[in-house]
Amino acid sequence: MKPNIVISSLDADFSLTLRHILEVEGFSTDLAMSPAETVDAIRQKQTVGLVLDGRNEFAISLCRSLKSDAGTGQVRIVALVPKEAEHRYEAFLNAGVDEIFIRPIEPERYLRALKRLLGGNGHRSCTHREQEAVTYGGLTVDTRAHRITYDGRDIHLGPIEFALLRTMTGEPTRVFRRDELAFRAWPQGVFVDPKTVNVHIGRLRKALLAVMTRDIIRTVRGIGYGIEFDGDRRKESL
What is the pLDDT of residue 235? Predict the structure, then answer.
């Protein structure tokens, strides 16, 4: 069965163009023009992804609603935002969107993001040798199984957060600059604003603290982030 993608937009040309591109790539698609139609389309089929037109006034609230609902929270959301609406970028991230791109954009970029989010291997390869699994202080990062556990409890992370944690635990004594983390964790060719890295680090920190007793992400003012397991060093804030 082909993976199903819902396209949510009020613009018929936008939707039909995307439908053609996605179906050529082997996806099946459904079109929706309102929040209710979008939710119905997602629930009626085993939908794995949503492409959201960032011009829609309801786009941010719809994204937040989908991500907070147990029945739709697993659907990967990619938002395409026109340059004149770039000020909404951070609001989309805070609403839980998985990827966001500023239009105009070449189709290859958001197709690569969709394939990665749905289980592809579109992350940039790291320059260092990655271990299959590393364990520090009860935290295990298993790259092959794409699984994070702490004292046997699963920690569920999005693909970007997983890649960030994998990168930092691969070199636990190092502090990574934001541009280095962006290079390691995002697909090739995607421009990543430093503030976007901060947002995803915040998501990672929140997910870890939900099961861990202390914050292991070290923030170094003006430089970036690293992992710290001994708890002795004072954490600085940006």
Answer: 35
